[in-house]
Design goal:
With 406 residues, the protein is α/β, with parallel strands linked by helices. Helix content is 36%, strand content 15%. The N and C termini lie far apart (64 Å). Bound molecules: pyridoxal-5'-phosphate. The site of pyridoxal-5'-phosphate (PLP) has 17 residues, from helix 5 and helix 9.
């Protein structure tokens, strides 16, 4: 019952048959899944969609699974749009909505891509998967791998956040800390894949993960009454969400479900690792040199040269968007402000989007009347939180009045 017509090389446009485990195109570039959209539009209407239960599986026709029997689920939900009115008022900006992906299984948006990619691998009879990851993707791979009965190998940079690594190990993945960055982990996966026949699940080296990420765009469009926001701020490492959401909007436009102006897509990176922001500002079509040295605590964007660089830069150009790099200090200050004033615990990556929005508003890159959506791609509980340093000796005299000050 799938509406997939073929796979397409993102560089040359060459058609590749779907229906078996695929990695990259013959030209070595990411493959994109193409659908028979006219047939899809005849099979599904907005009214029909509105009757279905919430969550990503309501968009099955836009997904590559052969049918409902392929669904691999851990209870994926529709993630909420949480408004930040106090921040908007302080900045003198417009409506700010946070799409909080931290509510997904394994606490991050990685669940969307990996539920689909692991389901497809299972359908094709894959037995072993390996992946380089900053942490959250490894945790999601391990969880869905456990569910599917597929063995998983996870390679992380030495300083990847502890919680996600332990989570991946808890789900039974073989987790390794590597003395290097994510690209070094990727090199190990490629070597292991050649030697051991592992299926390489590196970002955009298989075509189905971005199809899962596409559901962020579908969900957002439907929730906003099929009227897309003015701008979307997305914390960009490998760029799967940026590419996936843009693909969703293009598919929706092709079948006439969304009309009018498309959102400007904004790639948020760190001043300590901003290869896409730099390349876009230089008018380049790709990232020529890997970013060095990589210096940021925002782990999700620590990707010195993303494999999908051309696709990401194309999304920014086509959408009239831009790249915005933010300093760690601004990210941490923003996270603390939103946690205290709005009650929302953002991951560092989500806080980076808020900091980038503030910066873009101050520069006039977004207007004060514009509605923006910021992506919080993981629960704040997955990012390190400031230590609690106040102590009390219950045997000593306590000045209770002083507890509320200082
Ligand atoms: C919380 C979080 N935000 C953003 C990203 C970057 O995502 P993408 O690879 O889609 O650019 C990651 C990836 O590790 C992440 O874990």
């Amino acid at each position: 019952m799938s509406f997939v017509s073929h796979l397409e090389c993102s560089l040359t446009g060459e058609r590749v048959a779907a229906g078996g485990p695929q990695t990259v195109s013959p030209a070595g570039a990411p493959l994109l899944v193409r659908y028979d959209l006219p047939r899809l539009a005849r099979a599904l209407s907005k009214a029909e969609l509105a009757k279905r239960p919430p969550g990503m599986w309501r968009y099955l026709e836009f997904l590559p699974l052969r049918g409902r029997e392929d669904i691999l689920s851990l209870g994926e939900c529709e993630t909420p749009l949480v408004a930040l009115p106090r921040l908007g008022a302080r900045l003198g900006g417009g409506e700010i909505l946070v799409k909080d992906e931290g509510r997904m299984p394994t606490g991050s948006f990685k669940a969307r891509g990996l539920s689909i990619a692991v389901a497809m691998a299972r359908a094709f009879g894959v037995r072993r998967i390996a992946m380089p990851t900053a942490g959250n993707a490894g945790a999601a791979l391990a969880a869905y791998g456990a569910r599917a009965g597929i063995e998983c190998f996870v390679f992380c940079p030495e300083d990847a956040p502890e919680a996600a690594l332990r989570e991946a190990a808890l789900h039974g993945a073989r987790v390794f800390r590597v003395d290097g960055l994510i690209n070094h982990c990727g090199e190990l996966v490629a070597r292991g894949a050649a030697r051991m026949g592992w299926f390489d699940f590196s970002t955009l080296r298989e075509p189905y993960r971005i199809e899962g990420k596409k559901t962020m765009g579908l969900e957002l469009a439907e929730r906003l009454g099929w009227r897309l926001p003015d701008a979307i701020f997305y914390p960009t490492g490998g760029g799967t969400g940026l590419i996936g959401m843009w693909k969703a909007f293009r598919e929706l436009a092709a079948i006439g479900w969304v009309e009018g102006r498309m959102p400007r897509m904004v790639a948020v990176q760190s001043t300590g690792c901003a290869p896409l922001v730099r390349a876009f500002d230089q008018g380049a079509a790709e990232v020529r040199e890997p970013w060095a040295p990589v210096e940021t605590r925002v782990h999700g964007v620590r990707v010195p040269k993303p494999f999908g660089d051309r696709l990401c830069l194309k999304v920014l150009a086509e959408s009239g968007g831009f790249g915005e790099a933010v300093a760690d200090e601004a990210v941490e200050a923003m996270r603390a402000e939103i946690a205290r004033s709005e009650g929302l615990n953002l991951s560092l990556e989500g806080a980076a989007c808020a900091a980038a929005y503030a910066q873009a508003l101050a520069k006039g890159r977004v207007g004060p009347a514009e509605r923006v959506v910021l992506f919080n791609c993981a629960s704040g509980l997955k990012s390190e939180m400031p230590a609690v340093t106040r102590r009390l000796d219950r045997h000593a005299p306590i000045d209770f009045a002083a507890l509320g000050t200082g």
